[in-house]
Predict the structure of Fe2OG dioxygenase domain-containing protein.
Amino acid sequence: MVNADSLTSSLNCVDLSNPDINQSVNSLKQACLDSGFFYVVNHGISQEFMDEVFAESKKFFSLPHKEKMKLLRNEKHRGYTPVLDELLDPENQVHGDYKEGYYIGVEVAEDDPKSHKPFYGPNRWPSSGILPKWRETMEKYHEQALEVGKKVARIIALALGLDANFFDQPKMLGEPIAVLRLLHYEGRISDPTKGLFGAGAHTDYGLITLLATDEISGLQICKDRDAKPQKWEDVPPMKGAFIVNIGDMLERWSNCVFKSTLHRVLGNGKERYSIPFFLEPSHECLVECLPTCKSATNPPKFPPILCQDYLSQRYNDTHANLTIYKKQQNLQY
């Protein structure tokens, strides 16, 4: 049972090829004030390559469960996440999310001093004998999505009255925590009245998320998270476009001028594939109220916090403890 009472949301569209930067800034700003979600088109990643990325994603999720579990995520959040691994809305979910995923981050060699940082280290890759083009495809996509994310961040900076290159600083997106995640939703039917969701209601953690989806609907947003009852709106997929949403860190930076928006995924009985790209600043970035977003009558609403501390806490709160899987494996053998 899906939510039949939901409305269809009408989102602003930001065209990255538009020569009129003021028009793009105004469209993005209005979207962030209204819903925190918008489409991005003409982003420079070809549809042919996007189709290839989705095809490679499906190949991985089609592998036997035993093979996928050999690549189980590690403490750096690299690798496979099984169905029910993530619990995003414990107040309303009976079980975890009915989705499986795969985390791919910035590739950092094990002997690199940076590899001691959370979310940094070597990625886990399927065997080239099983999926020969997989690593090459995902690394190329990670690189291209990062460039799109930086272009969007420059428009966000202008929308907040900052220099266009504000987020390009070394301690921000100069050395980002940029995480690509492949997702596969089982062909289950969600039922909010019974606490069953493809992905529970949540806000994203970082600066922005670039979401690529297949043609299957399922994403919903709630513009007013404090409303009783909450009103949910469907976000339709758009061929060739990213669905972009702002995250908690941008809410903190902007002092709630831009608010991260509650969203969830409801399954409708069809398999669904999506690929979010989470763009976060560097580990040492201190996320604190921007000078353009505070005043004597509007002081900062949040204390400053390091990016790595905030992300680590949020990931630990929502993912299963890895010892659970070790116990399961010990019981099997």
Summary: The radius of gyration is 19 Å. The mean pLDDT is 93. The first helix runs from residue 21 to 34.
